[in-house]
Amino acid sequence: MSDALINGLAGAGGGIIAQLITYPLQTVNTRQQTERDLKREKRKLGTIEQMCQVVKQEGWARLYGGLTPSLVGTSASQGVYYYFYQIFRNKVETTALERHKKGIGDGSVGMLSSLIVAALAGCVNVLLTNPIWVVVTRMQTHTKTSKKDHPDRLPTTAPEEKVLSVIEPLPYGTSHAIQEVYDEAGFWGFWKGVFPTLIMVSNPSIQFMLYEMMLKNLKKRRSRSKKGNNGVTALEIFLLGALAKLGATVVTYPLLVVKSRLQAKQVTTGDRRHHYKGTVDAILKMIRYEGFSGFYKGMNTKIVQSVLAAAVLFMVKEELVKGVRLLLVKDGINTVKSKPP
Q1: β-sheet bridge partners, residue 167
Q2: Where are the domains of the chain?
């Protein structure tokens, strides 16, 4: 079994566990990002308040809306990402060693090379899995509607009135979301938001660059110690993953908001300020009608959710990789050796 496959499967497993733990936060964050109420005087609800409001008005199940396709997307996304990341990294490491033999460089993978490897793996991942995330976004942002609400308009009734007149004849499931996306924009509707998402590749690229840089420095310090042990504990992996994700999230969050706006259900009638024709149109309308603060809606929630998810993912993924390698060694099965990320 190759290291690429081991890392791919471990990444998928770690992603699923992280998703299950942090999914309610992700649902609330997506709703915060796609909130288009332009009334400045309206008090913004905190994360916990909004979670309680969703439970009170729509039930616990709504916090897990889109969980099934999200788990499929997470396993596919993490699996694809780690698989191709390891393949690209193996090639870069081989090239670096060959250059070292010729007297060029020290044989290690530099920061720029790590960034390029992560970006390439991210692009492959985005192009293959974007349709899944479009469906997940639709299901996360779907809310129960009342008789008074036009299907294509934003709710105009007060929250208290909506609670009294909530009607949802049929459950909104994955098939409904898929049909809605297709009816709205056809086949290519499943690649809505792909442009800002491709730019968002810089998020995991920055994340992995920071993670590997910190991990490399930590191992160097350990190897210089008297014991000469450069091993890293699960808790240290957890903290390094959290710090790396925090830095990447702060830098790229505005793009994430634009992506969510494009993938959510578009307003086709009424206020045209809420209808986005594309990435540039969305950015210009958000700046004009909401100001730059609109690009940071729900950022606090996202930082908590993404940092926790990334920390859990890194920790579980590394432990799974260690466990699988140990089992393979015991069974006498050789793997393609390479330096783990």
Answers
A1: 145
A2: 3-330
